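$ ./design --mode recover --in tokens.txt
reading tokens...
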């Protein structure tokens, strides 16, 4: 079973994504802050990271996760549109960049695609 970390400070968005992924058989860990997520980076196969958080940004976790586990695909969710340069996100290890509100089926297909790629390697 693939383990997905969701780092999102909106409980509504987090629960929506978590329920969607759990229904497809993923094990999901939900965190609402950078400090909470930092304690759970060793046991993750894929990370979905909000950009703007109460104690930092999702890019901080992306950079940390990239150092510890460079094989883990990471997605960045943001309501900020193009104000976060994609090259900065890519340098932090972000594979996909999605603006909120994210279409649940699109997110699910993207997660499944990356998990399938991971299973093939």
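writing sequence...
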């Amino acid at each position: 079973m693939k383990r997905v970390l969701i780092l999102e400070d909106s409980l509504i968005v987090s629960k929506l994504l978590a329920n969607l992924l759990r229904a497809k058989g993923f094990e999901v860990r939900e965190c609402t802050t950078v400090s909470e997520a930092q304690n759970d980076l060793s046991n993750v196969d894929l990370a979905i990271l909000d950009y703007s958080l109460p104690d930092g940004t999702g890019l901080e976790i992306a950079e940390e996760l990239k150092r510890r586990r460079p094989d883990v695909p990471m997605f960045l969710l943001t309501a900020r549109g193009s104000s976060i340069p994609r090259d900065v996100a890519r340098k932090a290890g972000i594979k996909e960049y999605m603006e909120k509100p994210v279409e649940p089926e699109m997110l699910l297909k993207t997660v499944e695609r990356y998990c399938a790629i991971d299973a093939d390697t």
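exit 0
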